[in-house]
Amino acid sequence: MENGKDIVVFLDTVGRTIIAGKISETEDKLTVKNPAVVNVAPRQEVDPATGQTVQRMALQLFPLFFREFLAAKDEPVKFVFNKSLITLSEGDISLDFKVMIQYEQLFTNLGVVSAPVAPKMEPKTDNVIKLFD
Q: Are 86 and 13 in contact (CB under 8 A)?
């Protein structure tokens, strides 16, 4: 994504803010890849200057559909939205670079982490102890 030029931001039918890579757009359909839901949640922090607990807001991005459910985990997830059911912004929205970095990292293929394979234990046959000889 080159400086967010192919990024689209819109509200879905339940009011969630969606960030996605724009694939194509017609008069009635918007096709996107890798849509992410914007979640803003409160968090408590201690202000180092005053030592007081303060409320701040934390931005989180969650994929609309987790790629971990797909057989091909490195493929983008594509959705077609009916434009009569979503709310698009008037004009382009230029997102802060920190939001763009978080979005890009969300969909960067970091490789599939698999559980370590336990070594195969084979019975020893050379030092067999016989019980009840």
A: yes
Among residues of the chain, what percentage have pLDDT more than 70?
Answer: 77
Candidates 89, 109, 115; CA nearest to 18 is 89
Tell whether pTM > 0.85: no
Question: Is the residue at 125 inside a domain?
Answer: no
Confirm whether 45 is domain-assigned: yes
Q: How does pLDDT run across 5-31, given as a tens digit for each residue?
A: 689 999 999 999 999 999 999 999 999
Q: How many domains are contained in the chain?
A: 1
In sequence order, what are the beta bridge partners of 48? none
- Please report the DSSP string for 108-132 in residue order: S------PPPPPPP----TTPPPS-
Q: Are 18 and 61 in contact (CB under 8 A)?
A: no
Residue 61 is inside which H or E element, if any?
A: strand 53-63
Range of weakest confidence among 46-50, 83-87, 106-110: 106-110
Q: Please name the amino acid found at residue 33.
A: K
